[in-house]
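Handout, section B. The chain below has 388 residues.
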Amino acid sequence: MTRAGQRGGGRNGARSAPKAGGAGPRGGGRNERRAEGRPAEARERRARVPAGPQGRGGRPDRAGKPERSAARAEPVAAGVRKVTVGAGEDGQRIDNFLLKRLPGVPKSHVYRLLRSGQVRVGGGRAKPERKLVQGEEVRIPPVRVAERGAPVRAPDAVLNKLREAIVYEDPHYLAICKPAGLASHGGTGVAYGVIEAARGWGKYEFLELAHRLDRDTSGVLLLAKSRPALLRAQRAFRDGLSDKRYFALLVGRLQGGAREVDAALVKSRLEGGERFVEIDDEEGKPSRSRFVPQAHYRDATLCEVEIYSGRTHQIRVHALALGHPVAGDRKYGLRDEQKTLRDKGLRRMFLHSHFLQLPADGDFPKLTLSAPMTEELRDFLGKLGPGR
């Protein structure tokens, strides 16, 4: 029994388990193993993705996608700057402080500036992990940065929808039940996400994402309203002290009881630059998920999934390792296996973050958040017949 199987099994089996449809024996090079581990149809589908303004696979653009590409900002030269650390930056690492203030500058160059001693804090050199203190002066050397364009404001309809999706707020945190289809943050090809929209309310002096959810995942998303609150949440996530649980509908019938997957994950890129995550013993980061069946339906199994780490696409890749991809997952799921569920009206990935808990930490009490399954997901379950 493998770790991709029932809890208590052996280790090596899970990590050599087929990602989809079976992989050959070990012994080839790293790239060969990765190619074997990718779903064949996923590889074929990527070869057919057209270029143009549509989303992946020819799908219409979703919330946050700009209608046209913006003109590239020309880099501008900046002279020596001396910046005083503000209250919202107290406790922030100097590398993150610089990355935020030097838009468009490659991360490698920012670290080169730190290593060479050109960046000074209080007149002295600073290592990347050095944490800043309010009132300190940071000397930033001349460097060419991208000119900042006007910030993108999300449409009023999105701002209002997110206001209605608030599930919790206190002096330290804001929690939103993120809709599927809206990114956690903007980026390349994505004009805005939840964080940009929430800042658009003009209500908070400080607001940062404490973690992230995939664009197609709905549910609890936590935002911090102060630097100390952000650091507290990041500590809990980093040290494995948080309790994160999701509802996931898996394709097919998951046999037996709870199943645990302990398989390291690594990010890769396919032709065209699309990000892809896969299992890799040698270079992956430790990742563990526990799938607990809640109900069996015709052609699908509803599971509660507890994750003990927070890797990109973790649940989706671990579900695939079990041989039961997440329903509606167009990246890792095979089309033929999902056809029955699509025919019944599933139009999104069935993955919902329903519970998040952070332990007490210093002056911060225990934080418990929940977001019930969305109406569209409940309605879809009602369309599925009982499992046999």
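Note. The first helix runs from residue 12 to 15. Compare this with the example in section A.
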